[in-house]
Amino acid sequence: MDDLEIRQEQQEQEDEWEQNDEFPTVQLYSIGPREVDRAASLLTTEAVELIRGDEAFGLAIVEEDEVRGAVCARLAPENEMCLELLSLYVVPQYRRRRLGGTLLIELLEACGGIFDGTVARVEASFCPEPGLEALLKKAGFLLEQDEEGVCSHIVSVSTLADSPLMKHKAVLPKGCTLVSFEDLSPILIRQLFQTLEQADADYIDLNRLYQALPGASFVLLDAEKRPMACAVLSGGEEGMCLSQFFTAGGNTSAGMAVLQAAAKALLEQYADAWLEIPLLTASSAGLAKRLLGGEGKREPLIRAVLEL
């Protein structure tokens, strides 16, 4: 059988699955702190860390003793009547078999029992992805572009080598020391988090700070070991995210120092990966444009809402 016949057969099978209203017979398992490692590759970094901290819950779908999909949600911190969908993923070769729909329905049913009917709505924000958008629409979610949500500037790590960021000569402020997270003590990490909190710039929590990529995340300390700037990366071999960037008092030299150090480390360790830079403010969007030039693409988030 040649490649064309194989593709045609696969498409016919997928179409049959798509038209079948019955959900597949699978095993479902709850994902708690003890089980999260088995499904970690199918969840976002945020979802894994929140489950480990017992701040979120999830479900895994298993066939033939293989985890083929996972979902994670939590009660929204600011509204306990709202369920926040954090992650929903099915392994690509097993999609279009209603595994995603099964996960979503089972999650909503589980929430009805756990929270005794107090949840009134489900919300999710995510980067545009046709398959996920179609699934949520079919489930009754209303979708719209999230104008106020975080946008992301996405670039290939390899393009950083020729970016304006790497051509600028960064000079360390007098008396400061640049330290990677590999060499940062837990006490200094906690001190960094306290600095971020005091500046109202803590975009990630303390657990995520501890889980940062150690060799690609950097902090700039002044002569008294106080954090002046940081660039914190999270993720894995295929894709990273600049989860936290901070400069005390808007110190340009300090900011450039940590960004360049992080970029050099990424080029050495993850040249084939992608880097996502959340654009939380207009100033961060301008900074990304100036430092990365015309490379990359800006991805607005999609917001999905389901009223229960």
List keywords for this structure.
308 residues; alpha+beta; seven-stranded mixed beta sheet; 10 helices; elongated; disordered N terminus
Summarize the structure in words.
By secondary structure, this protein is α+β, with helices and mostly antiparallel strands. It is 34% helix and 30% strand. It has 10 helices and 14 strands. The strands form 2 sheets. A 7-stranded mixed sheet has the order 1-2-3-4-5-14-6, sandwiched between helices. Strands 8-9-10-11-12-7-13 form a 7-stranded mixed sheet, with helices on both faces. The chain is elongated and about 60 Å long.
Task: Show the helix and strand layout.
Blueprint: H1 3-19, E1 27-31, H2 36-39, H3 45-52, E2 57-63, E3 66-76, E4 79-90, H4 99-114, E5 121-126, H5 130-138, E6 142-145, E7 151-156, H6 164-167, E8 177-180, H7 186-198, H8 206-210, E9 218-221, E10 227-235, E11 239-247, H9 252-269, E12 274-279, H10 282-292, E13 297-299, E14 302-307
**Global geometry:** elongated
Give the uncertain stretches in residue-range form: 1-20
Distance between the termini: 49 Å
Strand order of the largest sheet: 1-2-3-4-5-14-6
Write down how many β-strands occur, each being a DSSP E stretch of 2 or more residues.
Answer: 14
Major β-sheet, in short?
Answer: 7 strands, mixed
- Put simply, the count of helices is 10
Oligomer: single chain
